[in-house]
Amino acid sequence: MSSINNSYEYYQSNQGLLSMLNKSKSGNPLINQLIANNEMEYQQKMEKYGLGTGNTNNKYKNVETSANNLEDALASLGKDELYTSESGEEYDNTQLIKTINNYVTAYNSTITSLVNCGGSLKNIFSTELNEAFKNKTEAFSNIGITMSKDGKLSVDQEKLKAANPSDVKSIFNTESDYYKSIMSSTSSMDAIINKALAMKSGTYNSSGLINGVL
Predict the structure, then answer these.
(1) 168 burial class (0-12, 13-18, 19+ CB within 10 angstroms)?
(2) CB atoms near residue 117 (< 10 Å)
(3) What does pTM read for this prediction?
(4) Is 70 in contact with 182 (CB distance < 8 Å)?
(5) Which of 45, 58, 59 is nearest to 2 (CA)?
(6) Backbone φ, ψ for residue 113 (5° rounding)
(7) Cβ-Cβ contacts under 8 Å for 150 (sequence gap 6 or more)
(8) Coil, helix or strand for 148?
(9) What letter does residue 80 receive in the DSSP assignment?
């Protein structure tokens, strides 16, 4: 697990426990201070990673949008009906090919957004995405998908059209290691960037909660 993920989960765990204690103690001043200190410590750590500082809101939002699009595209590839035909009908892989190309576009957009953002956010999550692919390099190659030196994917359309749908499904089904790895990465990107943007906008209060949200 990445350093950013570890930091975020540690922060969540601490804030959750302290907030629970605070409710039972009716707003104990000492616990309030511990919550504030935990918030400050997390913010300083994120700034060290290059998050939460400077005028980079648009770069963060671009990563968040790209990650959400990637998650949606992968979820579409995880649907069983994409790999089967209607009863009595011949299988047509047109929609499958379109969905894979949409995924590749979303993947490459995420890589571009991470590169533009730079810093540890780019280094850590680009590595996670790359490693997930490299663990399935041969399987991807068999269906016509390869990775270039810049970490982006390309598709051999003829090879993809000729690919067995079961080979595609073995990579993208919801129980596969690849599917779970990419979903974990996109979820982490979304959560961490939302937290960084919230810190920058000052929307978190001393209880570690978003202002106006119970």
Answers:
(1) buried
(2) 24
(3) 0.73
(4) yes
(5) 45
(6) -65, -40
(7) 111
(8) coil
(9) G
* Amino acid occupying residue 113: S
Query: Which amino acid would we find at residue 158?
Result: E
Query: Which pair of tokens denotes residue 42?
Result: 């997390």
Dihedral sign (CA 78, 6, 200, 32): positive
Read off the tokens for 72. 């949606």
d(CA 145, CA 69): 19
Residue 210 dihedral angles phi and psi, to the nearest 5° = -70, 130
SS3 state of residue 50: coil
Q: Find the mean pLDDT for residues 74-94.
A: 92
Separation CA 207–CA 20 (nearest Å): 10
Alpha-carbon span 124 to 5, nearest angstrom: 10
- The Cα–Cα gap between 188 and 67 comes to 9
Q: What is the pLDDT of residues 9-61, one digit of tens each?
A: 544 555 445 455 555 444 556 655 555 565 666 566 565 555 554 555 788 88
